[in-house]
Amino acid sequence: MTTETAPEPAPGMEELEAQQRRLVFRRFTHDDAWELGSLLVRLARERQAPIAIDIHRAGQQLFHAALPGSTPDNDAWIARKRRVVERYGSASYLVGARFRAKGTTFEESSRLDPDVYAAHGGSFPITVEGVGVVGAVTVSGLPQVQDHRLVVEALERFLERSPDR
Length: 165
What we know:
This protein has six helices and five strands, in the order αβαββαααββα. By secondary structure, it is of the alpha+beta class. It has a single domain (27-161), classed as Beta-Lactamase (2-Layer Sandwich), CATH 3.30.450. Strands 1-4-5-2-3 form a five-stranded mixed β-sheet. Helix 2 (30-46) crosses helix 6.
């Protein structure tokens, strides 16, 4: 007999909006990208998650890691999800949720090429107080709700541990 687990419940719109307001940096440096990326690697290794991780700021890749089990396809998903964050200034999962809340999908209604943009969970804006969105932290390799939750967990831990950031 196998035990099936129910799919992880998707975060609601209020939770997604609250995450976006709460997970803000005072500054974001190259060293911060390294530390945040390394934290994501540790969390993924603990869970044996087959993911790729990417952190971009101002058009520059500051961190990238591909863990065992990830594939080149994960890098393509990362790029597509990151472009959604860069275009909309919001988490990729939140952007998709906003379209679903209107009774449609991102793919049907955004008028953007789905080979270039993906409003799936896993990319979160790097927002700096008084500046706005300066980049994105993105993971790919798990179901989209899990990708989103992993990034949010890492951001929460990072910002709790380093309140001056």
